[in-house]
C-alpha cells in the first residue's frame, strides 16, 4: 500500500490509559495534536507515545489506524544504551577497564587498514570516538531492503567493517558507527562467557523491571506482543510492510524490541541511579559534542543529552530500523517521553517533527 493511500485511510485515535474517546471529544492536548500531525501532515502510517508527568502519571497516546496503545516496536539503536550499561557494570565489577585497549579483551580481532585494537579503548567504542568504519554503510538497508530475511553473524558484521579503512585516528573526533557496539557486544561475551542477550536480560531488563522488552533470539523475525506494523519504502518509493524481519544485522547495535512505556522506565531507572553505581553513571554522562545527531546534542557512553526549548536537557538515545523510528528522553525532575513512528522518516522535516513532539511532551506539562 502506498504512503498516500495509508495516510488517506488513516483513522486517528487518541487514547489515555483506562479511557478511549473520539478525538473530537478529547481535551486539547499538544502532544496528541502533534502525534496526529505526524500521520496527517508528515506521512507516517502510525505514531504512538508514552508520556510520563512529574507526578508519575503516564499517558499513552496513539495516532493512525490499528496502532495499539503502548505497542511493542523495534527500538533500534536504543539497544546501544542497554549494552553500554552492561559494559559499565563490568567496569564497576573490575572485569573491564574503560581506558584499556580493546586488544586486552579481544586479542588480534580488531585489525584493518589504519585500524588497530591496541590503540582503541573501550571508552572510545562506547562514545563513538574510535574511528571504526560503520558497517551499516555497506549493507543494503534502503531501497527494496534486501536484508529483510537475511541472518548475520556478529563476526560477519565486524568483518564487513574491517574490510574498509579507519575513518580517523582513535580519539581524533566523534562520529557515529554501529561497528563500535558490535565490538562492545563481542567484548561482553568474551569477558562474561555468556551471550549478550542473556547479559542484557539479567543485568538490565530484569533489574529495571521491564515487562515488554527483549532481545530477539536467533532466527526470531516476529514481534511477540501487540504491535503496530512497520513500513519501509521499496525502490519505487511505495511503502511496504516490513514488520516481520530478521534484526540480526543490528545485533548489539540495534536488535532489541520494547514499548514506549518500557523505554521511559529504562531511562528513568538509568538516570535515577538504579542500574549503575555513581562513578560509572558519571562516566556515562560525560559527553562530547555530537553535531551529526541534531542541534545541541552531546554523546556520552551510549547515551545522549539534548537541550529542551523550555530550558535544561533531557537524556535518552533513540533508534532507527526499517519499519520504526523511536525518539525520547527523560529529565532530572521525572518527566519522560518515548515517541515511536511506524516508518523511518525520508525527509528532514519529518525527522524534525518527531523531535518536536518529544520537546513538546517534555515542555508542555
TrEMBL record:
Cleaved signal peptide residues: 1-25
Pfam families in alphabetical order: Beta-lactamase
Keyword terms, alphabetized: Carboxypeptidase, Hydrolase, Protease, Signal
MF-aspect GO terms: carboxypeptidase activity
Alphabetical list of InterPro entries matching this protein: AmpC-like, Beta-lactam-related, Beta-lactam/transpept-like
Superkingdom, taxonomy of origin: Bacteria
Record bears the keyword Cell membrane: no
Domain Beta-lactamase-related: 32-348
Protein name as catalogued: D-alanyl-D-alanine carboxypeptidase
Amino acid at each position: 500500500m502506498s504512503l498516500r493511500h495509508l495516510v488517506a485511510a488513516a483513522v486517528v485515535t487518541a487514547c489515555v490509559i483506562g479511557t478511549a474517546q473520539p478525538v473530537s471529544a478529547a481535551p486539547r492536548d499538544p502532544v496528541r495534536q502533534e502525534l496526529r500531525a505526524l500521520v496527517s501532515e508528515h506521512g507516517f502510517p502510525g505514531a504512538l507515545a508514552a508520556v510520563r508527568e512529574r507526578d508519575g502519571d503516564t499517558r499513552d497516546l496513539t495516532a493512525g489506524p490499528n496502532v495499539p496503545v503502548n505497542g511493542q516496536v523495534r527500538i533500534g539503536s536504543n539497544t546501544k544504551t542497554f549494552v553500554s550499561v552492561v559494559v559499565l557494570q563490568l567496569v564497576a565489577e573490575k572485569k573491564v577497564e574503560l581506558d584499556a585497549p580493546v586488544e586486552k579483551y579481544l586479542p588480534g580481532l580488531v585489525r584493518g587498514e589504519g585500524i588497530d585494537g591496541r590503540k582503541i579503548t573501550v571508552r572510545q567504542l562506547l562514545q563513538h570516538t574510535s574511528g571504526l568504519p560503520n558497517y551499516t554503510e555497506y549493507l543494503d538497508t534502503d531501497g527494496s531492503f534486501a536484508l529483510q530475511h537475511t541472518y548475520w553473524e556478529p563476526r560477519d558484521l565486524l568483518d564487513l567493517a574491517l574490510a574498509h579503512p579507519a575513518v580517523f585516528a582513535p580519539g581524533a573526533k566523534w562520529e557515529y558507527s554501529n561497528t563500535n557496539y558490535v565490538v562492545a557486544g563481542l567484548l561482553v561475551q568474551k569477558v562474561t562467557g555468556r551471550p549478550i542477550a542473556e547479559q542484557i536480560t539479567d543485568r538490565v531488563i530484569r533489574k529495571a523491571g521491564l515487562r515488554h522488552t527483549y532481545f530477539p533470539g536467533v532466527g526470531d523475525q516476529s514481534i511477540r506482543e501487540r504491535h503496530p506494523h512497520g513500513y519501509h519504502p521499496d525502490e519505487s518509493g511505495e511503502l511496504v510492510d516490513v514488520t516481520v524481519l530478521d534484526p540480526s544485522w543490528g545485533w548489539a547495535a540495534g536488535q532489541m524490541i520494547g514499548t514506549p512505556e518500557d523505554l521511559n522506565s529504562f531511562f528513568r531507572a538509568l538516570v535515577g541511579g538504579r542500574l549503575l553505581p555513581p562513578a560509572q553513571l558519571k562516566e556515562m554522562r560525560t559527553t562530547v559534542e555530537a553535531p551529526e545527531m541534531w542541534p545541541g546534542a552531546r554523546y556520552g557512553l551510549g547515551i545522549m543529552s539534548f537541550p529542551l526549548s523550555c530550558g535544561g536537557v533531557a537524556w535518552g538515545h533513540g533508534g532507527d530500523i526499517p519499519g520504526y523510528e523511536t525518539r525520547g528522553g527523560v529529565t532530572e525532575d521525572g518527566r519522560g517521553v518515548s515517541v515511536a513512528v511506524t516508518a523511518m522518516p525520508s525527509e528532514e522535516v519529518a525527522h524534525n517533527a518527531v523531535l518536536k513532539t518529544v520537546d513538546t511532551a517534555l515542555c508542555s506539562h
